[in-house]
Amino acid sequence: MRAEIALTLQRIGVDVEVHHHEVATAGQAEVDLRFSSLTRMADKIMLLKYVAKNVARRYGKTVTFMPKPLYGDNGSGMHTHQSLWKGGKNLFYDPEGYAGLSELARYYIGGLLAHGRALAALCSPTTNSYKRLVPGFEAPVNLVYSKRNRSAAVRIPMYHDRPETKRIEYRPPDPSANPYLAFAAMLLAGLDGIEKRIDPGEPLDKDIYSLTPAELLAIRSLPGSLEEALEALRDDYQFLLKGGVFTKDFIDLWIEYKKQREVLAVNTRPHPWEFVLYFDV
User: What is the pLDDT of residue 136?
Assistant: First the structure.
């Protein structure tokens, strides 16, 4: 079924680079699409979802893009690989830099990390997103960068050392995100980092789970809930207004809609597990 999804995407002009089973159970799958420009890549995400759901239906099955559909299992992310190019040259490449990254790429990372908590409101925009973003399960909860650590928000892929392949991978987004909003927000955060020359600090190539409590205190982390992410966006949104890409009215509406229709709606309804815990009190 996964192969038919990939072949169908190929037939409609969406290039698939690789597809395989992922680490979780229940048929979790990964389908990686070939890179493209920001808007075209968002189009491809929408086509992928449409094709996957319709092919699955022909098999009498369903597909979900929920970030965390199964308790105790790895969730589903939407890792986004990013690089900036000019005149056919990859601006993120420098053979002398850490993991082959240029200074410009480091500033871009600095912007992503500095605005990471606010970005969560657009990149991980559901209450279910924060059941994925918990320590363990390879979840990228820490606002650090690394060429090794899968729990870092920014990972530097090291599969190849060719200039054209050098990129950064931002791991917090999940497939419940609107790709047009999420991709635009990430780009604006990275550009803000370049403009302000935000230093991302030293990479963290240690096993984060082996750090001492004192060391962990120095590491910023993503919000623990959608409500917390929306508050972070309310406190940090100016970078999104540059160039008129987002507006203050849109951000205010996004925050209020999400709070009322999702956060409050979930928080005020009894959860099935509460019956297990409390029904016989």
Answer: 63
Q: Which residue type does 239 have?
A: F
> Is the dihedral angle over the CA atoms 271, 273, 276, 280 positive or is it negative?
negative
Contact (CB, 8 A) for 66 and 112: no
170, containing H or E segment: strand 168-170
Q: How many CA atoms lie within 13 A of 205 on its CB side?
A: 7
Distance CA 15, CA 97 (A): 31
What whole-number distance in Å separates Cα of residue 268 and Cα of residue 21? 37
**CB contact set of 178 (below 8 Å; sequence gap of 6+):** 122, 125
What is the model's pLDDT at position 109? 98
pTM above the 0.70 mark? yes
Please, what is the angle between helix 248-258 and helix 226-235, to 10°? 160
- Spell out the long-range contacts of 85-90 with Cβ–Cβ below 8 A and sequence spacing 24 or more: 90/163, 90/164, 90/166
3 state DSSP class of 27? coil
Which residues of the chain are under the pLDDT cut of 50?
Answer: none
Pairing of strands 142-146, 152-155: parallel
CA distance 27 to 59: 13
CB 77 within 8 A of CB 66: no
Segment holding 275, helix H or strand E: helix 272-278
- Bridge partners (DSSP) listed for residue 80: 170
